[in-house]
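Dear U.,

For the methods section draft, I wanted the exact inputs and outputs in one place so we can describe them consistently. I've listed the two proteins in the order they'll appear in the manuscript figures. Please don't edit the token lines directly; just add comments below if something needs changing.

First protein:
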Amino acid sequence: MPKPEDIVREEGAQLDFSRDMSYGDYLQLNNILSAQKPLSPAHDEMLFIIQHQTSELWMKLMLHELHAAIGHIAADELQPAFKMLARVSKIMEQLVHAWDVLATMTPPEYSALRPYLAQSSGFQSHQYRCIEFAMGNKNAAMLKPHAHSPERLAVVQAAHVAPSLYDQALRLLARRGLPVPESHTQRDWTQPYEASDAVEQAWLQVYRNPKAHWDLYQLGEELTDLEDAFRLWRFRHVTTVERVIGFKRGTGGTGGVSYLRKMLDVVLFPEIWRLRTSL
């Protein structure tokens, strides 16, 4: 059997990177792997930091895909939008499973590092807020946690004033001749979305005759998949928090589990879920 070093040599693998870009150079691993700065002596703080840093990286990709998908829908280019929305749903699956790792942290282990977190909380994630805004859950109060950072505030404000994914989907339906009321195609995008019977009827036309509206029908199901994955993410979040801290208040000042449970009731694309009762 060949020795490992013989196999590498026979395969012609490049081993000298004194003049060429290496894997670590391309990914800037020196920066990424030196970004973990535990503040406590607790062994489990490294898990806590990496869990949240990797989640933020996934969220960066989610926003990259969501923004592109919204742009394609606005331009009536649904095929690339479908691929991007499907990718976002898969990213959410990764985020759901990430809670499994954090759930290995027991209450005493978390209690050992919690005092070092001060008031920092995932509640303050500007990327998560941009995702919520892009998905249509607008809330002007959630701009305030970013007021201390003009650069981040500008990013969140831009997401707040822009039409959401669902807003652009409804505008597309209207352009296709479906009876979406103007109140839902020309409105103040900073306001929370309000469900409409007329919008539900427009979607029902699509779902009752999918052959005539196949790409819109597929769009409706991509949005359903997306919210389904988002609900799982939220649910796994609240159960992990309850498992680790019980009903203690969150470090960001919310009620913790009580706040997260309220968020489970938020419906992003209400008419797409309601219409199923009428089919």
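Second protein (the one for the lower panel):
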Amino acid sequence: MTRKAGFAPVVDANTQLLILGSLPGDASLKAGQYYGHPRNAFWRLIGDVVGRDLAALPYEDRLTALKAAGVGLWDVIASAERPGSLDAAIRSPEAADLRGLVAELPKLRAVAFNGGKAARLGRAVLAGATGVTLIDLPSSSPAHARPLAEKAAAWAVLARWVG
């Protein structure tokens, strides 16, 4: 089985909130973009948090807008074996260097986990990280069948950490 690898982190020195997924799905890997599946609600959810329609912007502009709001992106898994895109199918995961990244972000105040798999793996690595609030979010994935309004209500808590 082929290993799938994630993307580089999208952060800068002003990152206050870091959102961590598990590992990009096939549509995202093919597009070369975080949350590239057209049915993934991530860009709508985080757009509501930062007060901009990010889903309507070209990808690079989305990333620029996130950075301007103090929001960074990465994944808890650097690479893994996985047929398809479901988190449940992930095998032999190699952890991303979350502690290393967190140590490089001087303004970081919170880390949010996009989905249960990201939360389980990320919390295990970041347990005891001082001064950083850890937040579990419902997954933005279309495979996580909850109404968008319910997801948006849970994601709204992130506004507190947006610059």
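Candidate sentences for the figure legend, describing the second protein: The beta strands are 3-5, 17-21, 71-75, 77-81, 91-95, 110-114, 133-137. The mean pLDDT is 94.

Thanks,
Y.
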